[in-house]
């Protein structure tokens, strides 16, 4: 170090000094772990101050209805008028020229009015209509709120997926699961707060759909497979535990050096948190995946013994989702299995494509809802079934449907949502939302509200302003809450 002139060591600012002092606590936690202790990841701050540890449990803004979220993501865009939004007028006009103005579509290969190939029946005490595609989910309608007036700003998969997952139609923003974990932390210190169960179809847009964006990387989604092992490198490569601890000890020393050099040590802190979590997951994940203790009745209910392989895969995902819920994971997203054709994106051959996709998910989803309810967990678990958009009421070619962001259906169950009801409506053809239009921002705002967080107050300073999941939008759907 030169003793004088422009090369002399400059004093650091008070902000930098406090940052360096505070950011050393991650290394303290890692050191504690290496000596056989675990960081207190479930320590909630009653005074509302954030804990030093990025994954520590934090108190919500107000009393929550739900403690966690399960997102059942139907990749590709299920058809609303073929699933949960029956349109008799559509069937009556089948084969006729479409009577409404057609908006530009993804492929603009538009045909005539296309009535649903499936019949609808009313179910439950509420009499909610469900198509033949979902005979098992139909048994749960009294616990479900069907939102039939969803709209999106995008008609292309990648942008629509980013919008659904992050509130912006471009990559780079934190996903909803990252925001939830940032806001509430993690209850179980041995598992990630945000888990994605990947059945085989990663959504268009890739892993950015599950990213932490500009939030600390400790909040990004951890992708598991419904297989054993669910994640790579879960089994230690070292010959013994002592050798592994020595390696982690070396990492801790290197991190200490980095902490001395960085004014903003968040990346190092997140890395330390991830080291800790990975270390503890080596014992927690094998226990999570061991379903031998589940009863034969439970296995049959989910569909683990069915002949259709995609059903088996999604059944494993749904059962693991329930087990993750029991272990305190905050946000769980399930993606669809491959069915030998396309995902819920039937530009042609609608009947076979939707039949196969529904067959894969119907029984496991119903089992998940019934299992959560039977164990007293549904009331505090918000389950969201959604795609990135819907389908057109007129055909693409002769027997498919194109993308439709102007009006589609999602549903929610549990977690403080009223069951046995529908909210909003599309026109008589199921084309556009005409009553109580619901934007993606509204869905996000409602989800956060049910978790006890005001979407306007859950912010992170980035790029010179306070950023939030709902940006400058979002209305809470209070009418659907108990």
What does this structure look like?
The chain is of the alpha/beta class and 482 residues long. The chain has a single domain, classed as 3-Layer(aba) Sandwich (Alkaline Phosphatase, subunit A). It has eleven helices and 18 strands. The chain has helices at residues 14-22, 25-34, 88-92, 157-166, 176-184, 241-261, 266-289, 296-302, 309-326, 350-374, 440-450; strands spanning 68-73, 110-113, 120-123, 128-131, 144-150, 194-197, 222-224, 331-334, 381-386, 390-391, 394-396, 403-404, 408-413, 421-423, 425-426, 433-435, 460-462, 465-467. The strands form six sheets. It has an eight-stranded mixed sheet with strand order 7-6-8-1-9-13-5-14, sandwiched between helices. A two-stranded antiparallel ribbon has the order 2-11. A two-stranded antiparallel ribbon has the order 3-4. A hairpin with a 6-residue loop joins strand 15 (425-426) and strand 16. Helix 2 (25-34) packs antiparallel against helix 6. The longest helix has 25 residues, at 350-374. Residues 1-51 have low confidence and may be disordered.
**Count of distinct structural domains:** 1
- Uncertain segments: 1-51
Molecular shape: globular
Strand content: 5-15%
The value of Rg in angstroms is: 24 Å
Strand order of the largest sheet: 7-6-8-1-9-13-5-14
CATH fourth-tier homologous superfamily: Alkaline Phosphatase, subunit A
> What's the count of strands?
18
Fraction of helical residues: 25-40%
The largest sheet, given as strand count, sense and whether it forms a barrel, is: 8 strands, mixed
The CATH class assignment is Alpha Beta
Assign the structural class, choosing from mainly alpha, mainly beta, alpha/beta, alpha+beta, or little secondary structure: alpha/beta
What CATH architecture label applies? 3-Layer(aba) Sandwich
Q: Could you tell me how far the N terminus lies from the C terminus, measured between alpha carbons in angstroms? A: 66 Å
CATH fold-level topology: Alkaline Phosphatase, subunit A
What count of helical segments does DSSP give?
A: 11
Order of secondary-structure elements: HHEHEEEEHHEEHHHHEHEEEEEEEEHEE
Mean pLDDT: 88
